[in-house]
Specification:
There is one protein chain. The protein is α+β, with helices and mostly antiparallel strands. It is built from four helices and six strands; from the N terminus they run ααββαββββα. The protein starts with a helix and ends with a helix.
Length: 137
Amino acid sequence: MMTEVWEMASEENAAVIRRGYEAFIAGDMDTLMDQYTEDSVWHVGGSGPLSGDKKGKDAILAYFGELASRTNGTLKITLEDVTAGDKYTVGIHTYSAERDGKSIGQRSVLVFSISGDKVTEVLEMHEDTAKADDFWT
């Protein structure tokens, strides 16, 4: 019985994340932000200008706006996989973008904490953090 409950919760969490990716890719920030708690936190690894913690829905939304602004809308995300476990749900995606004569294309991993069908925390990690830091600088 516990295994069935866990599997159902895992499937629901994976569905939340898939819907979130779909909304982000479509530019539907209202739908995306509905999936986050007011006090959610997005952690961006590295030491570049966009690294650090984004605390609250407004800060997370501003971060997404900064990604779009800095790339003049060239940022493209392709979801590769979503998997859910006991504690975390993981999204793996590739992204590409152009900025100031530079281009980037690599994988990223987002580790989500979910409570009650809402994202409470995200940890963002890039395949090559130094390359990502350089691109956003």
